[in-house]
Write a structure and sequence with these properties.
heterodimer, A: about 250 residues, alpha/beta, Rossmann fold, 6-stranded mixed sheet, about 40% helix, globular, B: about 270 residues, mainly alpha, about 85% helix, elongated, binds adenosine-5'-triphosphate, binds magnesium ion
Chain lengths: ~250, ~270
């Protein structure tokens, strides 16, 4: 079956001064597919996501979302694409002057014309999905790190985007919650045919959500394939990464 | 003990400082144009502007109240013996009022406002920048410049003139206390002298320039915060440099505006 190409990254290169962070990265993600990005700390995974959503300008290469090159779009056009994407930041990036409720309502109120009733219902449902209904009137500063992460997740999926970018969705969560959140990401994909790129170090999470995975080393894609293929590889580097001691260390 | 070394190092940094200075001036100018281009484009976020105005008012109200009253009081106490020496005691109320209306009220209120508000805005936006909250707004297709910067600059521009009028009023009251402490005068007489002394050409330029000062405070605070980088340290730097820069700009623009005023209304 020929599937629609949702995200296409061609030869992406990003430098900060002398430091080459991404060096000719090419990725395709099809509609309804979850792509997991592995890589050691500091290899440019977050930078990759930020380039794709247009927060950072790449030095070279092209990035297409739904056939449009985001590196060349004007703000107005870029915003059209951003309205149908969601982004979970590594540090959650909750608006700390707003309550949890206001955080969730913010994208709904600013970009869509929902009624008060619809806004309320969507907010409650999103909180319910991440299991934090009781936190609705708290300020972000009153939440634990893991709770913030989950509220950030709720905020990014509340608009039911077609495309999601998750930057380490399960980091800082206990194993049980991490599993629940991973299943949630899987469910969202099945339910809404969401297309996602997920950055993670968490193998349990990757096992649940990955259709395909890539492994970044020194700004280049060193391996690509399914999780099984990566795990079965003889390569010393991958074996090290996937051996349990390294993961729990 | 390391002082000589420190000074030496500072001198070494001079070209870099000069470069930074011009970079900041350029940055501020661009930021200012960006504000002017976006301020008339909807959505207007009236609720947000109101919220900031109330916050700023509440935050600065106590300190400007005390300052306003004391400026007038001290000015009257200080000037009274001098006026008495020249046998010009009758002119005391008018002189106090004129100094306060034309110069001291607007400038001192603006400087206090700068200290309190531009640092606050710098820290607030700076921490939003370094914790990626501004990026988060951008990816949810909200224009963070419009929502965070434009609303704050409008708020500072509108609230400072109000505060200044209030300060002027309190200073004139404080002046009366100063006068009765040192020589005694009926309130009726004081009031009439003040009203007779102040003309529209004294009041108007004084208040109009505070719109400019308010704009500067908002602009500099927002610029420093919005462009902050380098984690928590960057936030602190944004906040302190915002105070220094906005105070300097207030004094600079004051000089220019006074010159322009005197040119329009000589005498
Ligand atoms: N705004 C920036 N300016 C300069 N250098 C940056 C910037 N953002 C990222 N870098 C550099 O790019 C490299 C990759 O950073 P990135 O945040 O993408 O790492 P990461 O793979 O997400 O790591 P982690 O798993 O720890 O989150 C790092 O060396 C970092 O220092
Ligand atoms: Mg990262």
């Amino acid at each position: 079956m020929a599937r629609i190409e949702k995200i296409k990254i061609e030869n992406l290169t990003k430098k900060f001064g002398e430091l080459v962070v991404l060096d000719g990265v090419s990725i395709n993600v099809c509609e309804g597919e979850n792509l997991v990005v592995f890589g050691r700390s500091g290899t440019g995974k977050s930078v990759l996501l930020k380039c794709v959503i247009g927060l950072l300008k790449p030095d070279e290469g092209r990035i297409f979302i739904d056939g449009k090159d985001v590196t060349k779009l004007k703000t107005k056009e870029l915003n059209k694409i951003r309205k149908k994407t969601g982004f979970l930041f590594q540090g959650a990036a909750l608006y700390d002057s707003m309550t949890v409720r206001e955080n969730l309502e913010f994208p709904l109120r600013r970009n869509f014309n929902f009624t008060e009733g619809e806004i309320k219902e969507k907010t409650l449902r999103a909180l319910d999905l991440v299991g934090l209904g009781e936190a609705i009137d708290k300020m972000p500063s009153e939440l634990s790190g893991g709770m913030r992460k989950r509220i950030g997740l709720a905020r990014s999926i509340i608009t039911e985007p077609e495309i999601m970018f998750y930057d380490e969705p399960t980091t800082g969560l206990d194993p049980l919650t991490a599993k629940e959140i991973s299943s949630l990401i899987r469910d969202l994909q099945n339910q809404f045919q969401m297309t996602s790129i997920v950055v993670t170090h968490d193998l349990i999470c990757a096992n649940i959500i990955a259709d395909r995975a890539i492994f970044l080393v020194d700004g280049k894609i060193k391996f690509r394939g399914t999780i099984e293929e990566l795990k079965a590889s003889d390569d010393i580097f991958l074996r090290n990464f996937f051996s349990q001691e390294i993961i729990t260390a | 003990m390391e002082l000589p070394k420190l000074i030496f190092k500072k001198n070494l940094d001079f070209p870099e400082r000069l470069f930074n200075f011009f970079a900041t001036v350029t940055g501020l100018t661009i930021f200012s144009f960006r504000f002017l281009r976006q301020v008339f484009v909807p959505p207007y976020d009236i609720a947000e502007i109101k919220k900031h105005m109330v916050e700023l008012g509440v935050k600065t109200f106590p300190i400007v109240s005390v300052t306003g009253f004391i400026i007038g009081l001290v000015l009257a106490l200080q000037s009274q013996p001098v006026f008495a020496r020249f046998g010009a005691s009758d002119y005391l109320p008018g002189t106090v009022a004129l100094s306060v209306v034309r110069e001291l009220g607007p400038v001192i209120t603006a400087l206090i406002f700068a200290g309190r508000v531009s640092s606050g805005i710098g820290a607030e936006l700076g921490s939003m920048r370094v914790t990626e909250q501004i990026d988060a707004m951008e990816v949810s297709a909200v224009n963070p410049f419009k929502y965070l910067v434009v609303t704050r600059i409008i708020a500072t521009t509108m609230i400072l003139p109000l505060l200044t009028v209030y300060v002027i009023f309190l200073a004139i009251l404080g002046g009366y206390i100063g006068v009765i402490i040192s020589q005694g005068m009926s309130f009726e007489y004081y009031k009439n002298s003040v009203i007779n002394a102040i003309q529209l050409k004294d009041l108007l330029p004084g208040v109009i320039k505070t719109f400019v000062f308010g704009y500067l405070v908002g602009l500099v605070g927002a610029y420093k915060g919005f462009t902050a980088e380098g984690g928590t340290e960057g936030v602190g730097k944004a906040s302190t440099t915002a105070v220094v820069l906005s105070s300097l700009l207030i004094l600079l623009f004051d000089t220019v505006l006074v010159k322009i005023t005197l040119w329009i209304w000589p005498g």
